[in-house]
Every structure is written in structure tokens, then in C-alpha cells.
Amino acid sequence: MNPSTPGLPVHDQLPEFTQTHVHQVGDTIQPSHPLSSPFPPSPNPSQWINPFFLFGHKRRLKENEIHSVLPKDCSQHLGEELQGYWKQEVDRAEENGEKPSLKKAIIKCYWKSCLLSSIFIFFEECTMVLLPLLLGKMISYFENPKGSNALHDAYICAAVLSACVLLWAILHHLNFNHLQRVGMRLRVATSHMIYHRAFHLSNLALRKTTTGQIVNLLSNDVKRFDQVTTFLHYLWVGPLQAIAVTALLYMEIGISCLAGMAILIILLVLQSCFGKLFSSLRSKTTALTDDRIKTMSEVITGIRTIKMYAWEKSFVELITTLRRDEISKILKSSYLRGMNLAIFFAASKIMIFITFIIAVVLNNRITVSQVFLVVMLFETVRFTGTLYFPMAIEKVSEAVVSINRIKDFLLLEEIPLHDHQLLPSDGETIVDVQDLTAFWDKESGTPALKGLSFTVRPGELLAVVGPVGAGKSSLLSALLGELSLIQGNVNVHGRIAYVSQQPWVFPGTVRSNILFGKKYEEDRYKEVIKACALEKNLQNLKERDQTVIGDGGTPLSEGQKARISLARAVYQDADIYLLDDPLSAVDVEVSRHLFEQCICQALKDKVTILVTHQLQYLKAASKILQLENTEDILVKLPLEDYSKGQVGCKTYKNYFTAGTHWSIIIFLILVNIAAQVNKDIYFALCPQFGIYILFVLYMGNEMKTIDLNWYLVVYSVMFLYFRFKCIYHPFGITRSLVLFYILVRSSQILHNKMVESILRSLVVFFDRNSIGRILNRFCKDIGLMDDLLPLTFQDLIQTFLLVIGVVIVMVAMIPWTVIPLALLGLIFFLLQLYFLNTSGDVKRLECASDIFPLSIFSPGTPTIQAYKAKQKFQKLFETCQDLHSESWLMLLTMSQCFAMCLDVVCAILVIGVAFGALILKESWTPGQIGLVLSLTLTLMRMFQWCVRQSTEVNMMMSAERVIEYTELEKEEPWELDFRPPAYWPDNGMIAFNNVNFKYSPDGPLVLKDLTVSTKPKEKVCIVGKTGAGKSTISIDKNLTTSIGLHDLRKKMSVVPQEPVLFIGTMKKNLDPFKEHKEEDLWNALEEVQLKETIQGLPGKMDTELAESGSNLSVGQRQLLCLARAILRKSRILIMDEATSNVDPRTDELIQKIIHGTLVQCTVLTITNRLSSVVDSNRIMVLDSGKLEEYDKPHILMHNKNSLLYKMAQQLGETEAAALAQRAKEVSLLQRVVIKVRPVTPHASSTF
Asked: 486: which of 506, 556, 860, 883 lies 20 to 30 Å off by Cα?
């Protein structure tokens, strides 16, 4: 929702074409943020958040019930602000001949916010240092209660202690909330810049990155900013507090304190080394994650091809291997985190032990109050120095790696600015090209276009023809300003509309795809629909033009997508139309309609440049431009459904048991309990406990000082004994490492299960779920499970056991404290229940809304750039970010209120204990007072942190979302008990018996009562009107239910309508899993007329292909897919419009391959080119999913009542007569071949 106009639904603020990309809030008015009103409530959010808690406690929250973001937190404001500083930094670097630094731009943008938070954190840590001093003063009163004004001073100390406790709670949460918001703003701003940059990348730059990398940047890298701001200030607070504590200790106990601080410095140096390792591991991990996400993105995009070729197992193995390499780095990082935590829990004990040993050696005499003061000061510096400081090093190291990756992306080459929208002074619209030579990549040395000159004026139609790879699409790219010009001039004056060779539609309604942000005008809309031959197709759709299109254009055929793309262009009413072969994907009747009614009639007054292979239309063109082959290959969101409330026990069970057996989990729990009993009840508390024992048994109430020799006898025995047990038993550090190993392994196994589940799922799953939604599971959710969940559980377990230990000691020393502690626990439990019910819903909304429209990248970028619609899609992204920020900020505010309540309750306990000790001073000894007060202060931090960490397992929703994808509905088994023989099928005969087929259970039938069969080795062409259901026969075969899917699919080859290629070498795309000899690969390339082209490249077969093969023309991609199919040497070959984007000469050569090399195969050719069908044995004509005709070509071509005859007439009488004569000649030739053909050997011995 746009925060600048709070209260309006999303669909009232965005262009219509974006409505289905963002979550609709319907007619319900979304509440504006309380702080955005002219008279906002108190800054304390509890006043306006409590009603929200009550509301969410009663029922499931809806997305439109979350408060909108404040204007200062909206994506547009934050992104443009940081973009301004980044532009200044780039300009400065260019002037000085330096590389720009994104870190400097971020610092300039956010230094004021960081300065404000530094003030908060400074006073917060000052109060933490002050608390031990006040505690020491109070204990000194009990040592000498008869001094003058002693009781008065004690009450003052108690009052100041209480004020400091409350002040710390306020400062801590103000600072934490502020820092979290700064991190969120930085994350949103950098995401905005990444998305903005993606729309301005040149074609060459797009080939240097991938959708997977962009997804990783938006999902994982920017998330580091949420964490780094929280700990950033401890880089200077840690050393500063260590200096202050050292000074205070020196004044209290003298030079012996330096020994303990020396231990701290050693630990800080050690953890700083860990920080460097974190940075190195993070760099390696992100590179591996990029590879994994890139591969997963390709798998999702090419899932149909993968299933057709039965490559699921191979891709599962490939992704699992990538994941294994990634996990090895993540485990090392986790082990370092475990070491840091172990150092944190042991640091203060070691420092205290060394300090008192030195004090013994120096014969120092220390009072009881001084000992408690020393212990509490060391506890204070322990948190800052051994927990927050190393966390700051770790998070800053990771953030620096992410910043550098984002900087590298932002510095990729940008599209040169070309303004074709402004008309010249005389108002003339024109396209004028003179002596044009242009490159895709200057380093390749091969121009994409060379020496072209032409001029096109309004009312003229320029037809561009040429063989595959001649540069036809490159010419249009040059007119769009996407190619690097070496020489010549390109003058384009007027508004451009562009139709790409591969039709692009975005997730939305059919109408929104056509309007593309334009205002709906009914009369013009109907004219465009009619001109683009969409009337009948829209009538067949259940929701007409309100039918929602999914990722990839489901449920539309390629021909329907092509016509919607053309209708989008026509509706724009532009001055110049660049049409990249829009007629290839439709049948001849529709093709003729589009050419006559749309191109020649609706665009008759426009500048029109048409790339085409339909040579029959050239006579109607004003000019014809024929290109020769220049070898232009380069050498190189509806909202997601979500559950309600908290994560169920089943999710926890599946998560923990994924990495190991239940017995290991139970053993680990016992190890943690045993380690805590050994370490945290006695060892961790032995300073306080030892002081109390010595005070009671040796010193008594009248003693003011402690004989440290006696103290160290007790302390040293306890220290050495429990240290010995920690070393020689599987406790201590081992438990942390084992827990990290189990949880990271759980993440790895669940990831692998999710990969296998997705590859086993039905194709309809990919039609219903966008690529962004699926990749979000593999990127964001898996990232949380890798990094944060193990750390959160480790912290929760350690803190919980420590709290239990503290409570046991307090109750053992002063039994009646069980009453306030039990009351405290009950209050915390109720608060947790109150918080979790609502926060669970908000967290689910946050997860569901964290999906950005990623499917527009790569295929849709040229269209968006041509239509100058980048700002509209940027607005869409900003709206998506704002929707996510609404849930994220609400969750942060709720967590702040929850934590504030916990701290207030703990503060009340501290205040009660402090004043209760003074009131009951006669009943308590100084040792008891010191012990209880110090433990209460420790409990204040630990208790509320333990409860908060227990709520932080809302991150388990990421595990829940991953587990959900491991339980998807599966397709039929890959293998069954019955396995066909190796030579099956030996004849290649296909039969359909009353087949009815639909894409989804709730979809319409696309094949209706189909009963037909083919003869062995027969060549059958399938034609029909566009969208008639031709493509749906590709996997149907008689008795296929008795054969496993892999056994079935491996026996046939499919060349899909939309070519699918993967990032990697040419060799990898032909033979992904190294099943063939290189000689066979070259032979296959020679069959499809690509051998000479590939041999002319410097890398030959090792030439790298860009994402989706974008450095090849569409025709070359189709030929490469055909070569891949030929390599399999299957008995059944299905070609689904496989030659729609090749020129007639190449198509003729392919027909020779079908009747020559593939003579022993049964070939089903689905095509709209009638010139390709007359060579077939029989022709199948489908209409609306029904079989209308099935006979030999010459019979149908001479039957004036046949549909095929009528379709041929659309080509013109001369062309139709030529086709009929050709069909007759082919029929005679086939009869002769049948008569003289010798008996063929067995199928198992020949191809």
C-alpha cells in the first residue's frame, strides 16, 4: 500500500496492470499508522498496540488489518534517498579516478541515525556499569550497618538502583527498536536500488548476472543489514567499557585486576581472528549459494523439459552436491559461533579466577562488597566483550561481504540513455539508420550488425528477413538502444511499441496484460481484441479477459500469448512498432488475419518494422531488408496462503529428527542438562556461592574482609574440578558443536527433500506458484534455517538452563524467594501466550508478503524497457516492499512491547528484592544479600531474554514452510515393478483410446474423446487452430499407466515449443550428464546446421551460454534443442512447434532430417507451417480438443470440405495450389519407396 495516501486500497493507487502482482486488500480500508495522524498518541506503542493484541487473540488477522507504514519508512523515499548518495559517490570516484564505495554512501546516508543510537547505547551501558557499584554500596551497608547515616545511604542506593534498572529497560528498548528500524531502512533502500538497477542493465550486463543471483541479493544479502545495525556500536562500546571497568576494578582491588582484563584482551584478539574467518567463509558461502539458487531457478524455469527428458534424478544429485559444498562452509561458520558462545559462558569465570589468584600472590585484603562488585563488573564486561563484540565483528564482516556484492551488481553496465519519446521540432516520426555497425560484446570481435542503412516513415512497412542468426532481433535491439554502436547513426523519433520474439506476459489478468497501465477505453479495447483475433479465445476462457495468467503464461498457448503481446502493443497507440516475428506462433488462418487486420489495417499509419519468416506476406511490404548470417553468438503476485497461529509440534518433530534420530536428540538434551549442572549451577555461580559459604562458615557477620587464601581453596577446587569434567566429558564446547551440527544437517536434509519433492510434483504446481514464491523457500527460508535458527536454539537452551540454575540457587539460599519467582514465571508464561497468538499471524503475513515480482527479469526486461514502463514496475516493487514492511514493523513493535513488559516485571522484582533486603535486614547476612541481589540482576537479563528467545522461534515458520514443500502432491511413480525391455518401443506405434485430458482437475478439457493411432515409423503432422489443444498429446500413450514415468519418458524425445537452455557450455546443454561422445555431439550439431557456426567460435563446444541461452537467437535455441533430442536416438520424437522461429530454408533442411536421419522414428510434428506438413505420412487436424480430420496430406488438400484445405486457402490460391501439388508428388514418392524398401533389421540394432 502506498503510505503517502493512507486508507486507500492498493488497487486504487496502482496502474491496473499491477493489481495482480500485489496483494489486493479489496474494498476494506487499511488502517493508517497511529503515529501518522496529526495528533499521534504517546510514543509508547503499548497504548495503541494492546487493542491490536486483543483483536488478533480472538481471530486470525488479515493482511489489510495491519497498519500502513509511515511515509519516512516507505520504499520509494528510502530508495531514492540512498540512491542520491550513491550517485554522488559514483561521480566523486569518477572525478578522482577511484572505485566508488557503497560503504561510504551508506555512512553518509545513515550517520545521523547511527549517532542518535550511539547516544542511547552509551547511556545504556553506563547504567550497566553503575549497577555493580550500587550493589557494592548496598552490601557494604550490611557489612557495617551501624555507621552514621548508613541506612539512609542504603535506601538512596536502593532507590538509585531501582531507577537505573528502569532506565536501562527504557534505553535498551528505545535503542534496540531504533537500530532495528535503521537496519530495515537500509535493507529496503538497498533492495530498491538492486531492483531499480536490474531494469537499467544492458544486455551484456544481464549476461554477467542471473536471476538466481538477483534473488540471492534480495533475499539473503540485504537481510544482513537487519542484524548488523543491532551490534554495530559494540565495536567501540566493547573496548570503551573494558577500559572503564578496568579503571573501576583498579580503584577497588588494585593491580591484580589487570590479570583478568589481560584474559579478556586475549579472548577479544581470538574472536577478532574468528571475525576474519567469518568474512572469508561468508564470501565462499554466498558464491556457493548463488550457484545453488541459479541452478534451482533454471530447474523451475525448465521443469517441463527436465520432466520430458527424465532428468529429475540427475538434477537432484547436482543440486544436492552444490548444497553439500555450501553446507561445509556453513558448518564451519556455525562451529565458530559455537566457540564464541562457549567463550562467552566461560570468560567471566576464568577472569575472576585469575584475578583472585594474583590478589593472593600480592597479599591483597578484599571486602565482601568488593568481591561482589568485582564479580558483577566482570559479568557486565563479559556480555559486551565476549558476546556482543564478537557478534559485531561477525555481523560487520558478513555485511561488508554483502555490501561489496551489491556494489558489484550496481556497477554493472547500464543501458545508454536514449530518448525516443520526444518528437523533433517538425513533428515528423521517423526511423533512420545509416551505416550501422553494432556489437553485443565488443571483446568478441564479431559484429551483430554491419553496415546497415534504411529509412522508414509513417505508413510504411519494413519487412526484415534472413536466416537463423542473421541479426534480425539484434536490429530491433539496436533500435531500442540496447546494442553498442561502433559506427553509424540511429535516429528514432517517436513513441515505441515492441513485441518480442518470445511472447512475454506477466502474472495478472488478460485485460491488465493488454492495457499495460493504459486507461480502459471500451470501444478501442474491442477493436484491438478483434484486430488481434482474440475474440473467440476470450470467449473460451472461463473468466473471459479477467482470467488470471500465472507465471509462464498458464493457461494460455504460445499463440495466445503472442496475440496478447501484439494486442498490448496495438493498444498503446504508439508511433513506431517493432514486431519480432509475432506470426510464427499462430496457425495460417490467424496469421493471415493478424497481418491483414492488425499490421496492414490497424497499424497502416504507423512506422512498422516486422521481422518474419512468413515469406508470403513480403509482397505487401513497403520495403524489404534481407540480412545475412553474421554469427552473433557471444563468446561468453497474489499473496501466498498461510496458516494461523503458532507452529505445531509436528513441525518441531520433523525439524529436529530430520538431522538425526530421536535417541541422539534425547542424548543431547541429557548432555546439556549435565553440562549445565556441572558448569552453570556450580561452576558459573561458584564465585557468588563460594563467597556465601566462606562468609557463613569462616568470617561471620562481624568480618569486613575476606582471607583470599581460604576463598581460593574453595573456589580453585570447584574451578579445577568442573573444568576437568568439562574437558574430559562430552560437555562444554562439544554440546554446542553437536547442536549446531544436528540443526544445520536438518536444514541440509530438509532442503534436499524439498528439491526432490518439487521435482516429483505435478507440473500444475509450477503453473500455480510463481518462481519467486518457490525460490523464496530455497533462499530466504533455507538461509534462516542455516544461520539463525541453530544460533537461536543454542542461545535458548543455554539461557533456559542458566535461568533454571539461578532459580535453584536462589531458592536454596532463601527458600521464600520461590513465591515471587513462581509469580514471575506465571506472569511471563501468560504474557508469552498473549504475545504468541497474535505475533504468529503477523509473522506468517511477513513471510507470505516477502515475495517480489522476479518473473519480469530477463524475459520481460526488453518489453518493459521498450514501453518505458520501468517506473510502473518500480512502483510495483515499492508497493510489495511496503506491504512487507507493514508486517515487519508491526512484528518489531509487538516484540518491543512484549520485551518491555518482561523487563518491567523483572525490574519490579529487582526493586522488591532491594527494598525487601533493607526491610528484612536483620534476617539476612551480607552474603545472602550479595548473592540474591547479584543473581536477581543476572536474572533480569537472562529471564526476559530466555522468554524472548522462546518467541523468536517464530523463525520456525521458515522450517514449517520448507516442510510444507517436502509434502507436495506427487506425480505417478518414476519406476514401477514392470520394466519394459531395453529395445522397447521397437516399432513406435502410438494409440489413443477415448482420451480426455485437462491440465488441472478444475480446468476445461483440452482433449475430448480422442481415439486415434499411428503406424510404426510414421511421420504425422498435427495442425489446428491456435489454442486447439495440439500440445497436450506429448506424453499420452497406450497403456502408459503400467509403465513408470521415467521408463516412458526416456523412450521418447520432445522438442518443446519454448526452447529451454541452461547456463553453462554448449556441450553441457547438449549433453548435461556426459552420456555421449563428443563426436556424436558434433554430428547432432551438423544435422541441425549449427556445426559451422559453433566451430567458428573461439571456445567452440566450450562456449558459455548466458541465462536461458540469451546470447543465442531464438531460432538457434530451437535448433540446439532439436540437436539434443536427436542425440537421444529415441523411437518416438515429438516436435512441438520446434521450428516456428527458423527461416523456411532451415525448416526445409529439418524436414529432410525427419525423413532421412529419423526415418526409423515415429515423429509427431506439431506445427502451424503448412509447408512443413505436406511431407508427412498423415495429418491430424484438431479443433477445440477434438479430432476433426486424420488422413494423408494429398487427400485432405484436394478435399474442398476439409479444414486443412480451408486453412491452405488462407495462404492464397497460388500458394495453396503449390502445396496441393507438392502433397501429391510426395504421396507418389512414398508409394514408390514403400514398394522398394528392404526388410529392416531388428529395432535393437539400428537407430
From this structure: 860
Residue, of 756 and 1046, whose pLDDT is higher: 756
DSSP state of 953: G
Position 1035 scores a pLDDT of 40
pLDDT given at position 897? 79
Identify whether the C-beta of residue 1057 lies closer than 8 Å to the C-beta of residue 1140: yes
DSSP characters over 678-733: IIIIIITTHHHHHHHHHIIIII-TT--EE-HHHHHHHHHHHHHHHHHHHHHSS-TH
Residue 749, pLDDT score? 92
Alpha helices in 61-101 (DSSP H): 75-96
Cα separations in angstroms, 1021 against 445, 1144, 1151, 1222: 42, 17, 11, 15
CA distance 284 to 329: 7
SS3 623: strand
| Number of Cβ atoms within 10 Å of the Cβ of 217 | 27
Q: Which of 8-12, 33-37, 1170-1174 has the lowest mean pLDDT?
A: 8-12
Cα dihedral: 1072, 1077, 1079, 1081 (round 10): -20
Report the alpha-carbon distance of residue 274 to residue 281 in Å, rounded: 10
3 state SS of 1093: helix
List, in order, residues 6 or more apart from 2 with CB less than 8 Å away: 8, 10, 13, 14, 74, 879, 882
C-alpha cell at 328: 561445509
Q: What is the pLDDT of residue 85?
A: 92
Angle in degrees, CA 1036, 1039, 1041, rounded to 5: 80
454 sits in which H/E element: strand 449-456
Q: Are strands 607-611 and 576-580 parallel, antiparallel or unpaired?
A: parallel
Q: Which three cell numbers stand for residue 285?
A: 558461502
Is 133 within 8 Å of 126 (Cβ atoms)? no
Which pLDDT tens digit goes with each residue over 232-279? 999 899 889 989 988 988 888 888 888 888 888 888 888 778 877 877
**What stretches of 1041-1192 show up as alpha helix (H) in DSSP?**
1045-1049, 1066-1070, 1078-1087, 1091-1095, 1114-1128, 1144-1155, 1170-1173
Mean pLDDT is lowest, of 98-107, 748-757, 860-869, 1063-1072, for 860-869
- Of 154-158, 177-181, 487-491, 734-738, the range with the highest mean pLDDT is 177-181
Three cell numbers at 371? 568481591
Query: Collapsing DSSP states into helix, strand and coil, what is residue 419?
Result: coil
Query: Long-range contacts made by residues 816-823, C-beta under 8 angstroms, separation at least 24?
Result: 817/932, 820/909, 820/912, 820/913
Distances (CA, A) of 1080 to 461, 1069, 1074, 1119, 1128: 44, 14, 11, 16, 10
CB 273 within 8 A of CB 339: no
Q: Determine phi and psi for 1044, rounding to 5 degrees.
A: -60, 150
Is residue 106 over pLDDT 90?
yes
Helix (H, G, I), strand (E, B) or coil at 490: strand
Q: Which of 389, 235, 200 is nearest to 857 (CA)?
A: 200
Residues 662-690 have pLDDT tens digits of 777 777 777 666 655 554 444 334 444 44
The DSSP secondary-structure symbol of 1089 reads T
Instruction: Tell me the residue ranges of DSSP E strands in 1149-1224.
Output: 1162-1166, 1178-1183, 1186-1191
Classify residue 435 as left (phi > 0), alpha (psi -120 to 50) or beta.
left
Name which of 680, 648, 696, 499 is nearest 584 in CA terms: 499
